[in-house]
Fold:
Amino acid sequence: MQELTHYINGAMVEGTSGRFADVYNPALGEVQAQVPLASKAELDAAVAAAAAAQPAWAATNPQKRARILMKFVDLLNRDMDKLAEALSREHGKTLPDAKGDVQRGLEVVEFCIGAPHLLKGEFTDSAGPGIDMYSMRQALGVVAGITPFNFPAMIPMWKFAPALACGNAFILKPSERDPSVPLMLAELMTEAGLPDGVLQVVNGDKEAVDAILDNETVQAVGFVGSTPIAAYIYERGCANGKRVQCFGGAKNHMIIMPDADMDQAADALVGAGYGAAGERCMAISVAVPVGDETADRLIEKLIPRVEALKVGPYTAGDDVDYGPVVTGAAKANIERLVQSGVDQGATLAVDGRDYSLQGYEDGYFVGPHLFDNVTKDMDIYKTEIFGPVLSTVRAQSYEEAIGLAMDHEYGNGTAIFTRDGDTARDFAKRINIGMVGINVPIPVPLAYHTFGGWKKSGFGDLNQHGPDAFKFYTRTKTVTARWPSGIKEGGEFSIPVME
Structure:
């Protein structure tokens, strides 16, 4: 049995709390490792070490910090296969999807290499008689990130790369379900030249989370996960005077207009709804065809595509469409919600309830499910399922369709498929959701834009990555300067006297 560690001061460090969590291989349903769960004392010690290392790191000029990130990108590319295999083994993603997880984090690191430009302040000459004014962006100090199981490479990099580029020290508390890749990333940062103590990885559960939120040295906290926990972290962190950004759950709608290319829409829905077994906060989980004729055509296109999906372990090859969900508890919750959909009257057009994979009967595999005739009062519509389940809600008009997305409590992502530019423009302008796709099913912005949801999908006023990250991880200091006249007025040759 492998026993994992924390990563403190540039080295793997065994836990001392005596508490551990099991890390599973979800394809087999077997425990493959144990990860230590930090005590408050361990977390506080890691923060203290980070605080000691941070001033020298902040004093390092931005170009040198950027060069370390450049080297880190090289190392990520060198170890891509190793990282992806470790990620797939603990999470269950297919290898191509795992590589995509690493790649989308890598792209944020590449953006952060521009820190020397992004950290520039402003200057006003002669703001008053002989007065200049200028502003500077300065690091906060020690900051922290609490990251989820579903993107164990990407989201840690979304958090620590801009924080480190800004001159902060960073405490990463990754998910205890798949902690190996975050530990590997920390090792690569050290290999790239990051000073010891600047990036600490502390594994843990609620005790470690609360210790982060209550530690006075930690100046800011970023979180991605479920909405109830996002709300808890936001409230407790803010109450303790910290800068906090939290991103929660989602129920992403894709509207299909009658003029849409139905094959394109169906392909997009299958990829966006079932990729990564639906364990994405940007997964499309609700299809909203406008008009019964559109709905009938869409369902006709979807059924054979969904039935043809290949489900299996990452070791079965790159043609596997998706793997297992992360835990047995997650599988049981998905199955419970699917049954509630049947019980509440939805039509189960593709039934994956009896799915079993020979040789992997104990794994956490869930067959693909497709619902039709879902209504907004059903649990499968209201709840984030986080599994391979696509619900179809038929709308009779564009206004009804857009109203469904706008009235839902979540506002992470949405999409519309149409050939009509006026409809697309109206949708993009009116929708009260943070990320919008037009003929794009999963509208995750590229690294130089920002990522963030609205409503109960996001807490805080700044988004992840892009320019917002540099605002979140720095504070602005404004200086007003006036210099008294000196020798430029000419020399004084007489003895100065008091007047």
In short: Residues 252-438 form a domain with the Aldehyde Dehydrogenase; Chain A, domain 2 fold (CATH 3.40.309.10). The mean pLDDT is 96. The chain has two domains: 2-248+457-481, 252-438.
